[in-house]
Write a structure and sequence with these properties.
Length: 104
């Protein structure tokens, strides 16, 4: 059990650290280089998506068959509503940014 907790902590730390690294480089690029709003939107989408994944680290260590079963309930670190809002908000922003970049 101690090893599983260590793995989950590592997964959470890596996801959130990588998310903040991407967000900071995206903000720097937006303000000092390009002022491209679509790139900033995509950066924020990846930030929200990775943060949502990081708040539910059991997803990385659960077999896919169990994840797809109807009886499986994910246990996030914070409230499930916040985790799902970040995750799905990131997906929606990513789809909007992708569609917008293809139209322009």
């Amino acid at each position: 059990m101690k090893m599983a907790l260590r793995k989950e902590t590592l997964a959470t730390t890596l996801c959130i650290t990588f998310a903040f690294l991407l967000l900071s480089t995206g903000l720097y690029d937006f303000f000092f280089n390009s002022y491209n709003f679509i790139e900033l939107l995509n950066t924020c989408a990846v930030f929200c998506f990775l943060t949502g994944l990081g708040l539910s680290p059991k997803i990385f260590f659960t077999p896919i068959r169990q994840l797809l079963s109807a009886s499986f309930v994910m246990e996030p670190i914070v409230s499930p509503k916040l985790q799902q809002s970040l995750f799905y908000g990131g997906l929606v922003m990513g789809f909007i940014g992708f569609a917008t970049s293809k139209l322009i």
